Amino acid sequence: MSFCHRRAAAPGFSLIELLVTFAIMAIVISMLYGFGSARHQRTQKQLCADNLQKIFLAAQIYANDFGGKFPVTTNAVTSEDALGILVPKYSTDTSIFICPGGRDSQIPSGEPLRSHKISYAYFMGRRADSSPNFLFSDRLVDTLPKRMGEFIFSTNGKAPGNNHHKYGGNFLLCDGSVTASRAQLELPALATNGIVLLNPKP
Q1: I need a labelling partner for 79 at 20 to 30 A (CA). Which of 3, 118, 139, 149 fits?
Q2: Contact present, 55 and 70 (Cβ < 8 Å)
């Protein structure tokens, strides 16, 4: 009399369990290291600060030529209108006008800014001796005056004001220093009399 013995199934993952595991791992990796992650945007904020300081150098050379005044354009509506004065005479490097933390397209070297979209807001009307006031910043939620505690950058990673997703942005002051901020304003005031706050094109 012969008996058939069935071998016990070896323990292991089914195909579905394997796919679910890979999907969970991909989500976790994306949260930790992806475009919208806090870790990724910390690095991008530092690169963004470098860009702002390069723009500042171009603006400072301009100010030396114009009695200490940073660029001013009559009837400027966007920061491209005002900062377009800097290209190409004071800077042919247009990559510095694009925040590495955002998704704005690169601008071909030396091309007029007015024909493109940049990433930075501009506080038009400052002078080189206006420190420690704001001169440039990452794109803001709007150009209305703000007080401490009000939101200046995106809180959910969606436009406007989302150069660094939902992790705030940078401000450059008239002395060339850069300070990082959360989505809420942590400094006394965002705009003062006689200053025209310009956001880039939407």
Answers
A1: 149
A2: no
